[in-house]
Amino acid sequence: NKVCVVGLGYIGLPTAVMFANHGVKVHGVDINERTVKLISNKQLHIEEEGLQEKLITAIDTGNLTVSTTPEEADVFIIAVPSPIRDDKSANLEYVRSATKAIVPYVKPNNLIILESTVPPRTVEDVMIPVLEETGYVIGEELLISHSPERVIPGKVFKELVQNDRIVGGINKRSAEATRDLYKVFVEGEIHLTDATTAEMVKVMENTYRDINIAFANELAKISENVGVNVWEAIKLANYHPRVNIHSPGPGVGGHCIAVDPWFLYELQPDLAKMIHLARTTNDNMPKFTAEKVKQTLVNKGISHGRVAVFGLAFKGNIDDMRESPSLQVLQYLDEQGINYTTYDPHITENQLPTQTQNLQEAVSHADMILVLTDHNEFKNFEPAEVAEALRTKLILDTKNCLDHKRWEAAGFEVSLLGN
Ligand code: SAJ
């Protein structure tokens, strides 16, 4: 078997490397020349635990080659972005163009798998019409399926192996061929269904999480007004065997949870009421957070404060700040006329004018530390190391990730989102 993986991002590259390190010949394709050059030099354009050494092995054994153009193969895996546009409609142009790009290389008996998360019916209505251009009989000569990726950034290699996998074929043969392929490294169960159901399942999973987080955020706001610590309350509620409330926070970022619910809304806006409300609730959290910053400063008699913002990535222990709620919090801080510096040990290139790689510089003359992501580095901080540099020792922990007793011992007044 030879596999051609189209799209070498957060999903495509780990997947390509996994197949290659299980003895499968893999050709990886990306339209970005810089990405291809880096990977062929065994260098990474993304951060993921374990990826570096696995990439080195994959290239050194000769099992993984990369270029900007597809090659003939037995299996094609498409793992390209499927974002939303400004008007929240699904942008399927990458899926369409990746499918078009493989058309000249496809041969009878090939299997084509879409891994990108897409609105239900995309395989049937977008991919199949493009693949019909090959002239091969769909479902007979060409097998097609959707096997949505379900791995979480930061734990990709563990989850690629251990998670159950959903495989939706356009027919039984397609589903079974896809299952046989992933069996090479998947230890979780592989569940077979049809392509449209698989698309629906994936979007449902992320929407479930979005709605649950929105619920937690609503509880956080209510708790603030009734004098309850929402974190304590959620922890206690979750001791119930049938309750699993997620955590509140400064917003929902990333390219999945904040995107996929819009796919369902676009399909059925009149029916997707709860989905829409949850999405807008979560989208309002950066504003709520910035207002809380302002209020906390005002309560201390500080009208034009300076804030040291800790965390730009969209969540803890990753290097990805695309669609990060932190960026929106900064925008609202600007609107409130609050000065800030930003510090994130995982974003090693300065991408913002306010960004510094120097912790002391970040906290120097600040009136507050605002924690927006739960990086391990923040949890392990020694408060005494920074305490002297601040003008006012306030800390607002929006992720409830710090050891508050230690910070209080160093003279800090600690506030929480949802308390
Ligand atoms: N967040 C909260 N509260 C929580 C959990 C998360 O505010 O209780 C925030 C995070 O801080 C972050 C955002 O939500 O800003 C999204 O983070 P996440 O950890 O929930 O999810 P992603 O986007 O990294 O990955 C999700 C996963 N989906 C599910 O857990 C159902 C992953 O398994 C998917 O593969 C991935 O989306 C994807 O690619 O679709």
By CATH, the superfamily of the largest domain comes out as: NAD(P)-binding Rossmann-like Domain
| Total E-strand runs | 14
Instruction: Give the N-terminus to C-terminus distance in angstroms.
Output: 56 Å
CATH architecture title of the largest domain? 3-Layer(aba) Sandwich
Largest sheet: 8 strands, mixed
Return residue spans where pLDDT drops below 50 for at least 5 consecutive residues.
none
Ligands in the model, by name, code or SMILES, are: ligand SAJ
Q: Number of helical segments? A: 17
Strand order of the largest sheet: 3-2-1-4-5-6-7-8
Mean pLDDT: 96
According to CATH, what is the topology of the largest domain?
A: Rossmann fold
Instruction: State the secondary-structure class.
Output: alpha/beta
- Helical content stands at 40-55%
